[in-house]
């Protein structure tokens, strides 16, 4: 687009949108209406490239990747689309001329929060990179009516509020009813012989109509626009049928309810399965629709279904879309007439699986009864996949039934989705080096032994276009000036050119001024949203991510309590003022996580209002952490807290966003932190705590006894006692008892301190002390911060996508001229 932006044309497009959509003149439009008008004008530019891209796919008869995911955490689209059209500054100016402020307009857009956390945001970054690199791709997902709940903090507690992101309509989406397709649930399977072969017919089912909505995914400056296709469910209208009788009436109402429920809401669990029937319905719904469409599209230009995999890859984003394996089998066998062996060959050359977790509570298992009742024909296929897979295990390990127990897809009355994903895929990947090693050597060891060639690593990445160019415009501009090129926008390793300025006094001064401006921007946000004054000269120490015990927000806040106790003992304690910033949503049913939010807010309440500590510590809990405010938060951070129990965080991607914005990592040797340290040097990070091997070693021996620490360590004892003596909750001294118990196991039968918080406490406190010392030497700190930015090149999702393409998808780039 770049060259031919026409301000006057853009203005006319806006005015026309206001007129036709709202019957209004510019001067009478509300901010929301103006946002909509700007979005329509931008969409107008996009659509030409969108059409051209798809014409080019057909012309080149390209291979496609379908990125199948229950989650796409897209955030806001307007700013990102303008950036990728290379029209951001032009549009900003055009709007200024009309007396309009682009920032205010962007703030009118609700986040598209169709995801929980890392897994969903990764999918969004991948779409951005795929389009920017010019690879033919579809994202396939669900158009949830309510995305991730919005978080309110009331009296220190999280309250969940429905996310009505579609109330004003979504200006970028295009409803494609011509691609609607039926998805069937329940009933029974009738087997008949006809034409010398067996046929399987699903009868007595309920069905819904899957209707796709397409969202444009704009590549950066290359005229490529890919598609995120999200499916909505609509009732199939039985009321219109002629054979209207009582039975049909019942069925019609039931089908209407089924359709209403399926896409209603995103499950707000991160790294935890709920095992709810509706969730399985959601999975089959979007997978069946997506696979049906992929097959139909292929058949438009190709005759031989046995070569389907030559033109299509399905990437399964965790186990959530695994039903794609038996669904593709079903279509190939029942509808396309392939033999089992032919269909299996195609399926296992089409599907590839990405694992995002080793947490056992996140492994998806479905009761066989439920699976069979909901998906009777698909279940028959799963049963046969399992029968053949078990046969293969027995051939390979004769007499070794423990191998069958360890690997069977159907076991103990359950369908083990991860095992089905592995059996049905030609590629299985982890998301960071350490994570992939743990999969191969621990969690999925038997599978690795059987089929080592399937396993590979793809270290995660993030898009610098959103998290630097859009989120931190000051730093982005500075980087371009310093290294003399904006090539880093599509080639992040170029940012290495900053390294030579790390010790340059002038560059340091400029860098610090930018960080300071970004801290002011965040301080203003915090003042407006939390009513708390924070000191932009203090160290901004940030932990933002989903709330989960393994991520150890508790370790962070216990350390704040410890620091506070030291300041109470000695108000003149020499320390650099610190602002501890938290942001986290807890799954609605995760009691302990929600109590941890309350604890953070209770500590904040006391600490922030105690004049005796002279403002040396402030604690801020940012309400409603999401993609749009994340951009502001990363830009302002000095310290990036990445403190998961080693081995538990598959990768982490927030860690990369902080690094790119010049924060120093305070972290364990977990997930991608290991590779961050490899790139930036251990001397430019603050590393602490047990290693993954140590943690796994303890776990194999039943854990450790935190009572030994509690009994022998006065300081730790004093802090923990504050959880049960009302120090931070005078009205209810017992309030935090559950957290205390989780660490010491005085009541429950669970193991105590499963996440090694007390065991890592002093190592963490020492790392925090080193940070306090290091920050006093501003030349050193600034140098380390600049080096973090300079060495973040590896962590672009562009690099990750190139690796997926080379090792797994084998796509060709397209070129689009408009
Ligand atoms: C499963 C079944 C039923 C309901 C919910 C779920 C569910 C939903 C979301 C299970 C897991 C998730 C999300 C997992 C996730 O976000 N994992 C993160 O993935 C990132 C991208 O690879 C990694 O960087 C993180 O380390 C990992 O925690």
Strand and helix map with partners:
Elements lengths: L6 H16 L8 H30 L3 E5 L3 E4 L2 H7 L3 H10 L4 H5 L5 E3 L3 H16 L3 E6 L7 E5 L2 E5 L12 E2 L5 E5 L2 E7 L2 E7 L2 E13 L6 E11 L10 H17 L14 H25 L10 E6 L6 H12 L4 H11 E4 L10 E3 H7 L1 H21 L4 H7 L2 E2 L2 E3 H7 L3 E4 L2 H11 L1 H6 L4 E3 L6 H7 L2 H11 L21 H26 L8 E6 L8 H17 L8 E6 L7 H18 L8 E5 L5 H10 L2 E4 L11 H7 L3 E4 L5 H8 L5 E2 L4 H9 L5 H7 L1 H8 L15 H8 L12 H20 L1 H13 L6 H13 L9
Parallel strand pairs: 1-4, 1-13, 4-12, 13-14, 14-18, 18-19, 20-21, 20-23, 21-22, 23-24, 24-25
Antiparallel strand pairs: 2-3, 5-6, 7-11, 8-11, 9-10, 11-12, 15-17, 16-17
Bound molecules: ligand 26Q.
Ligand 26Q binds next to helix 6.
Q: Could you give a short description of this structure?
A:
The protein has 818 residues and is an alpha/beta fold. The protein is built from 31 helices and 25 strands.
Features:
ten-stranded mixed sheet; alpha/beta; single chain; 31 helices; 25 strands; six-stranded parallel sheet; binds ligand 26Q
Q: Strand percentage, roughly? A: 15-25%
Distance between the termini: 8 Å
- Percent helix: 40-55%
Q: Return the structural class.
A: alpha/beta
Care to count the β-strands?
A: 25
Task: Give the integer mean of the pLDDT values.
Answer: 96
> Which shape, going by the Cα principal axes?
globular
Taking the sheet with the most strands, its summary is: 10 strands, mixed
Radius of gyration: 27 Å
Number of helices: 31
Bound molecules: ligand 26Q
Question: Low-confidence parts, pLDDT < 50 over ≥5 residues?
Answer: none
């Amino acid at each position: 687009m770049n060259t031919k932006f026409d301000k006057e044309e853009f203005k006319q497009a806006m005015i026309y949108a206001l007129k036709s959509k709202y019957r209004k003149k510019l001067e009478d439009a509300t901010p929301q209406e103006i946002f909509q008008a700007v979005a329509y004008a931008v969409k107008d530019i996009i659509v030409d490239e969108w059409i051209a891209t798809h014409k080019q796919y057909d012309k080149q008869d390209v291979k496609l990747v379908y990125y199948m995911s229950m989650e796409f955490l897209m955030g806001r689209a307007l700013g990102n689309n303008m950036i990728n059209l290379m029209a951001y500054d032009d549009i900003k100016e055009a709007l200024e001329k009309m007396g309009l402020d682009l920032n205010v307009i962007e703030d009118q857009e609700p986040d598209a929060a169709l995801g929980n956390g890392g897994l969903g945001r990764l999918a969004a970054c991948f779409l951005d990179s795929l389009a920017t690199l010019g690879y033919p791709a579809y994202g396939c997902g669900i158009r949830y009516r309510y995305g991730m709940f919005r978080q309110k903090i009331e009296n220190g507690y999280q309250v969940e509020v429905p996310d009505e992101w579609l109330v004003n309509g979504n200006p970028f989406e295009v409803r494609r009813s011509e691609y609607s397709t039926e998805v069937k649930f329940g009933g029974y399977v009738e087997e008949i012989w006809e034409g010398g072969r067996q046929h399987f017919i699903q009868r007595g089912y309920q069905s819904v109509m899957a209707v796709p909505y397409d969202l444009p995914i704009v590549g950066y400056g290359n005229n490529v626009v890919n598609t995120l296709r999200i499916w909505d469910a609509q009732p199939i209208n039985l009321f219109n049928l002629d054979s209207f009788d009582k039975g049909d009436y019942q069925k019609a109402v039931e089908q209407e309810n089924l359709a209403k429920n399926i896409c209603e809401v995103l499950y707000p669990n991160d790294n935890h399965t709920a095992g709810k029937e509706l969730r399985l319905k959601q999975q089959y719904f979007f997978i069946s629709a997506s696979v049906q469409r992929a097959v139909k599209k292929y058949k438009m230009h190709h005759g031989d279904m046995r070569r389907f995999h030559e033109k299509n890859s399905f990437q399964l984003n965790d186990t959530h879309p695994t039903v794609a394996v038996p669904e593709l089998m079903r279509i190939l066998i029942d509808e396309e007439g392939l033999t089992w062996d032919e269909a299996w060959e195609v399926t296992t050359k089409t599907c590839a699986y990405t694992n995002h977790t080793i947490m056992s509570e996140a492994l998806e298992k479905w009761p066989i009864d439920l699976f069979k009742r909901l998906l009777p024909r698909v279940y028959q296929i799963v049963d046969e996949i399992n029968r053949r897979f078990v046969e293969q295990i027995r051939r390979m390990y004769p007499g070794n039934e423990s191998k069958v127990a360890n690997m069977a897809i159907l076991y103990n009355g359950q369908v083990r989705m991860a095992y089905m994903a592995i059996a049905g895929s030609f590629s299985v990947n982890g998301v960071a080096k350490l994570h992939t090693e743990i999969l191969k050597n621990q969690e999925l060891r038997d599978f690795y032994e059987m089929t080592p060639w399937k396993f590979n690593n793809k270290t995660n990445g993030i898009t610098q276009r959103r998290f630097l160019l859009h989120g931190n415009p000051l730093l982005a501009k500075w980087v371009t000036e310093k290294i003399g090129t904006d090539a880093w926008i599509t080639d992040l390793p170029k940012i290495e050119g900053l390294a030579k300025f790390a010790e340059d006094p002038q560059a340091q001064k400029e860098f610090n001024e930018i960080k300071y401006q970004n801290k002011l921007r965040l301080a203003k946000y915090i003042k407006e949203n939390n009513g708390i004054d924070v000191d932009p000269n203090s160290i901004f120490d940030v932990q933002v991510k989903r709330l989960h015990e393994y991520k150890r927000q508790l370790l962070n806040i216990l350390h704040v309590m410890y620091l506070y106790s030291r300041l109470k003992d000695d108000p003149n304690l020499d320390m650099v003022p610190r602002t501890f910033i938290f942001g986290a949503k807890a799954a609605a049913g995760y009691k302990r996580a929600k109590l941890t939010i309350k604890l953070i807010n209770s500590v904040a309440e006391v600490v922030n209002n105690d004049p005796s500590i002279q403002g040396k510590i402030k604690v801020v809990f940012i309400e409603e952490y999401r993609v749009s405010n994340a951009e502001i938060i990363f830009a302002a951070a000095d310290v990036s807290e990445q403190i998961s129990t080693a081995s538990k965080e598959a990768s982490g991607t927030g860690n990369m966003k902080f690094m790119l914005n010049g924060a120093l990592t305070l972290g364990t040797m977990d997930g991608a932190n290991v590779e961050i340290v490899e790139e930036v040097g251990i001397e430019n990070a603050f590393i602490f705590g047990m290693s993954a091997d140590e943690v796994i070693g303890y776990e194999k021996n039943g854990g450790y006894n935190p009572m030994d620490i509690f009994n022998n360590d006065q300081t730790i004892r004093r802090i923990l006692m504050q959880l049960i003596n009302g120090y931070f909750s005078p009205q209810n001294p017992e309030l935090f008892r559950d957290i205390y118990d989780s660490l010491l196991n005085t009541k429950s039968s669970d193991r105590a301190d499963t996440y090694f918080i007390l065991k890592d406490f002093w190592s963490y406190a020492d790392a925090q002390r080193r940070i306090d010392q290091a920050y006093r030497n501003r030349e050193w700190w600034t140098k380390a911060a600049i080096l973090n930015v300079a060495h973040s090149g590896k962590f672009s999702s562009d690099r990750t996508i190139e690796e997926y393409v080379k090792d797994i998808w084998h796509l060709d780039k397209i070129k689009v001229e408009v």
